[in-house]
Amino acid sequence: MWHRFFDFLSSLKLTVVCLSLAMVLVFVGTMAQVNFGIHEVQHRYFQSLLVWWPVSGQGLKIPVFPGGHLLGGVLLLNLLAAHVRRFRWSWSKLGIQLTHAGLIVLLAGMLFTDLLSVESYMRLAPGETKNYSEDSLAVEMVLIGGEDAATDQVIAIPEARLAQGGVVAIEGLPFQVVVRRFYPNSRLQALGSDDARGMPAATQGDGSHAAVVELPKATAQNDRSLRSVVVEIVPSTGPSLGTWLVSDQLENPQTFSHAGKPWQMLMRSARYYKPYSLTLNKFTHERYPGTQIPKNFATQAVLADPERNENRDVLIYMNHPLRYRGETYFQSGFEDNDTVTILQVVYNPSFVTPYVACILVSVGLIFQFSYHFFGFLRRRKTAHAQ
Questions:
Q1: Which of 90, 102, 191, 229 is 20 to 30 Å from 142 at the Cα level?
Q2: What does the pLDDT average to over 81-92?
Q3: 178 confidence band (pLDDT: 50, 70, 90)
């Protein structure tokens, strides 16, 4: 039984089937970007084990095709099994072994990159200092307790936890946060307006004057889902403080007081804090003379890292990123008449694997070609000598 399974796993037929399915998946996923946008397509087709098809009006989903993670994982196992099964040490096969090893490293690196990499952005105005980057897709609900920014108690609840609902366990809080309703995408309507329908979303704050209309998740390329959540604040002792609406669409934070301490609640982009900071000195946007065509973007900043005694000037510009502590900062964009810079921040612990894979494949192919080429020359020389 085991031998049959291993023969199947290492077979060339499985390789051809997986590659064929992968070509179909790439084609379908590319076409789906017209309706769903690149991020949604990546999530549905390429960053999943299975592609699910929703049954209209039933609230059910059925698997209809293998996803990118499943196909990539099977291809990786297929290549490993084939390598183990056919491995025989000899100089004549060294090039093939190196080439296979390079492909294994490449597939493994692609999988780990997809699973572990994180992309975010950092927006800096002149003279501004930040020690965090922000996610362009994910959000978090934040509770801020106190009146002094230096000593405020800040607690962030990730979007994934809000979607689960129920009581959010937060150690040290004198009250419970209970998620009553989470809206992955929504629109707020002020009660009393002509198109307003429904009941108030909450009993306290801005939510007592607004209704929430749930919308399908935004999938278009330039659309963004606007999250909203209704939470109840329940003290450890005493009655409930009521329900509150926290939303992307509310300009001001929702405030309440407990035991004489003021608290704020707001929805913001998820943050990734760092043990160092960047301070923007100057942003430069150069154009070709006589045109509005961009020539170069450059960010001049100060990198400060107390843990490593770093305090130096850095220059980030097109095709010249900053790499520090496992993260890479790319010049991405600008705002406010070329004064505010936007840096893309990429954390990818397996970024070196494509380089290693390319070196292994290149060395393997060169060695294999050279071995057979010089062997052919030797045989030809021997034949002429006879």
A1: 191
A2: 78
A3: very high
Q: Are residues 380 and 327 in the same domain?
A: no
DSSP assigned state of 193 = S
- Give backbone dihedrals phi and psi of 111, rounded to 5 degrees, phi first: -65, -45
Distance between start and end Cα atoms, the chain: 54
Q: How far apart are CA 270 and CA 10, in angstroms?
A: 43
- Distance, CA of 262 to CA of 155 (rounded, Å): 14
Q: How many CB atoms lie within 10 A of CB 47?
A: 14
Whether residue 65 contacts residue 25, with contact meaning beta carbons closer than 8 Å, is answered with yes
Asked if residue 164 and residue 213 are part of one domain, the reply reads yes
3-class secondary structure, 201: coil
Q: Please count the structural domains in the chain.
A: 3
**DSSP conformational letter for 146:** S
DSSP 8-state assignment for residue 2: H
Residue 364 and residue 279 share a domain: no
Whole-model pTM: value is 0.79
Q: Which amino acid belongs to residue 67?
A: G
Quick one: pLDDT at residue 9? 86
Angle (deg, nearest 10), helices 353-385 and 94-116 = 170
Strands (E), 60-109: 60-66
Query: Would you state the structure tokens that stand for residue 39, as one six-digit string?
Result: 């991020």
Instruction: Say how far apart CA 334 and CA 318 lie, in whole Å.
Output: 13
How many CA atoms within 13 Å lie on the side-chain side of 169? 0
- What count of residues does the chain have? 386
> Is there a single domain that holds both residue 144 and residue 261?
yes
Give yes or no for a contact between 308 and 357, defined as CB atoms under 8 angstroms apart. Answer: no
What distances in angstroms separate CA 63 from CA 30, 60, 73, 352, one per listed residue?
19, 10, 18, 34
Task: List pLDDT tens digits, range 319-349.
Answer: 899 999 999 999 988 887 788 999 999 999 8
- Show the domain range for 265: 137-271
pLDDT tens-digit series, residues 5-40: 888 888 889 999 999 999 999 999 888 887 777 778
Dist CA 65 CA 51 (whole Å):
5
How many other C-beta atoms can be found within 10 angstroms of the C-beta atom of residue 57? 6
Strand partners, 324: 327
> Taking CA 317 as the corner, what is the angle to CA 314 and CA 319, rounded to the nearest 5 degrees?
120
Cα gap 339→280, rounded to integer Å: 10
